[in-house]
Structure prediction request, 267 residues.
Amino acid sequence: MHRHDLTDAQWAAFQPHLPSPQGFGGRPRINHRNFVNAVLWLLRTGAPWRDLPPYYGHWSSISTRFYRWSRAGIWQQLLSCLQQIADEQHQIDWDTQFIDSTVIRTHHHAAGARGGQQHEALGRSRGGFSTKIHLKCEGGGKPLAVLLTGGERHEMVGFVPLLERGRVKRTGQGRPRSRPRQLVGDRGYSNGVARKELRRRGIRAVIPPKRDHRRPANDDQSVYRERNQVERAIVKLKRFRRLATRYDKRQVHDLVMITLAMALSWV
Prediction:
């Protein structure tokens, strides 16, 4: 086992939700555990595919499988299954959820996507060429959903899409769970549009007003102090160098890397 590899406990949680080793046809290849470890090495180091250590296998074969799994939605399926198991074990706090965003500097190698970069969540903020990660967490600080936009976009761009995402399926019958009792956000979400949308959904808003706004009656300072849960979740994501700086040209591949990092927090 190498430093960046999955532990036995993590692999035991991942393995049941991955495809059959022969699920995509073709001749036998490296096992799934070695493949996922290779992707984790890239995630933690931020290195290019060609720099992948040879003990994981040939970088071209691993990248091909990575792109194939990305197109098939395997990584998102893995995260959804882990969240469903956590919900069955009552490990998701549906009372309170947190929302926040952070700007990620983008390496110049991420520019130049074929067909243009207008749909690749790239933009220019005060910090330069960047991407903004919008994140929603449950009450315990574990990530539920993520959205990418250009770095210059306002927090409210991701507000409603994040409310729609992060649905956790139930084992039996019933709709997926998605609605908390209250949502906590910073002043970037303090506007009439956000509060109206939360009222429509029956969610209590715990969002401090801007200094030139009247303080709403339902502002709860004791609950708001727990907002550091989502801030700590963002810090944990940025421990992965491939997430602290964006290197991928395509939004979908950057999102897959974030999804894998989120899955690790559930095991």
Observations:
- The radius of gyration is 19 Å.
- The longest strand covers residues 96-106.
- The beta strands are 96-106, 123-125, 128-138, 143-150, 182-184, 204-206, 245-246.
